[in-house]
């Protein structure tokens, strides 16, 4: 029998400071469903500002913390800070990531490290820290963010270092799911296709949206709300028998 969720529960989201990002949209969506919200962003002021807006809009408790999640000590300290201010940590969603449109033959050591450290190592450090608390409580939900770029070898905006790091997240999440399942913790990945956010290289024109949508089976590209809704399911109490999976939210761009 699985451990039930506490009456008051918190979801921590990383990378939630961007005004047009998936993380911010998900924070509001989860708060509307009653989750208390902890936000971690490299821009600490943006995290705090978003948290204040979430709390004011939906009447939940919310707090923000600044951290470069690629820095283990900073990532751990940020979770420590948020956990001290909010109800029991039940869910973690690791949105923090950086794009990389550099062609493979031009990728240097600095670019490789920058992309892998934030996207993959950052996901690992914050996941490990949050998982310690979840395992102690006997219940938890972890969501990592992969990408259709990992499944199709790029083909959107970002190229090789990004695709490699996002593929690594799938392996990380599956292994975490296997190890933490006995502790009542699930771990799943979401693999978005093209989503209308600034990580795609800035605000998308109608022409660029149409070109991206043409690869899929639907007539549009994704919105932050599409990913937020998928996240809400995977961290819900009802998703307690779903773990080690990758949920594609990509308009049919990659079918498997």
Automatic annotation (TrEMBL):
<dbReference type="GO" id="GO:0030497">
    <property type="term" value="P:fatty acid elongation"/>
</dbReference>
<dbReference type="InterPro" id="IPR020904">
    <property type="entry name" value="Sc_DH/Rdtase_CS"/>
</dbReference>
<dbReference type="InterPro" id="IPR036291">
    <property type="entry name" value="NAD(P)-bd_dom_sf"/>
</dbReference>
<dbReference type="GO" id="GO:0016616">
    <property type="term" value="F:oxidoreductase activity, acting on the CH-OH group of donors, NAD or NADP as acceptor"/>
</dbReference>
<keyword id="KW-0560">Oxidoreductase</keyword>
<dbReference type="Pfam" id="PF13561">
    <property type="entry name" value="adh_short_C2"/>
</dbReference>
<comment type="similarity">
    <text>Belongs to the short-chain dehydrogenases/reductases (SDR) family.</text>
</comment>
<dbReference type="InterPro" id="IPR002347">
    <property type="entry name" value="SDR_fam"/>
</dbReference>
<protein>
    <submittedName>
        <fullName>NAD(P)-dependent dehydrogenase, short-chain alcohol dehydrogenase family</fullName>
    </submittedName>
</protein>
């Amino acid at each position: 029998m699985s451990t039930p969720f506490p009456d008051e529960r918190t979801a921590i989201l990383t990378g939630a400071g961007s005004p047009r990002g998936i993380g911010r949209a998900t924070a509001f969506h989860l708060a509307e469903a009653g989750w208390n919200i902890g936000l971690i962003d490299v821009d600490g002021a943006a995290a705090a500002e978003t948290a204040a807006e979430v709390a004011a809009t939906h009447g939940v408790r919310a707090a923000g913390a600044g951290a470069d999640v690629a820095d283990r000590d900073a990532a751990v300290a940020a979770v420590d800070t948020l956990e001290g201010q909010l109800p029991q940590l039940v869910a973690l969603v690791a949105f923090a990531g950086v794009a990389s449109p550099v062609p493979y033959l031009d990728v240097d050591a600095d670019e490789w490290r920058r992309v892998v450290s934030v996207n993959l190592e950052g996901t690992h450090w914050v996941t490990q820290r949050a998982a310690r608390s979840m395992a102690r409580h006997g219940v938890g939900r972890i969501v990592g963010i992969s990408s259709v770029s990992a499944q199709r070898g790029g083909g959107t905006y970002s190229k090789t270092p990004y695709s490699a790091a996002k593929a690594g997240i799938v392996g990380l999440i599956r292994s975490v799911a296997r190890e933490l399942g006995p502790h009542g913790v699930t771990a799943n990945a979401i693999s978005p296709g093209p989503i209308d956010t600034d990580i795609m290289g800035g605000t998308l024109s109608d022409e660029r949206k149409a070109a991206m949508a043409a690869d899929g089976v639907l007539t549009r590209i994704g919105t932050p709300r599409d990913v937020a809704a998928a996240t809400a399911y995977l961290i819900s109490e009802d998703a307690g028998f779903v773990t080690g999976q990758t949920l594609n939210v990509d308009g049919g761009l990659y079918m498997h």
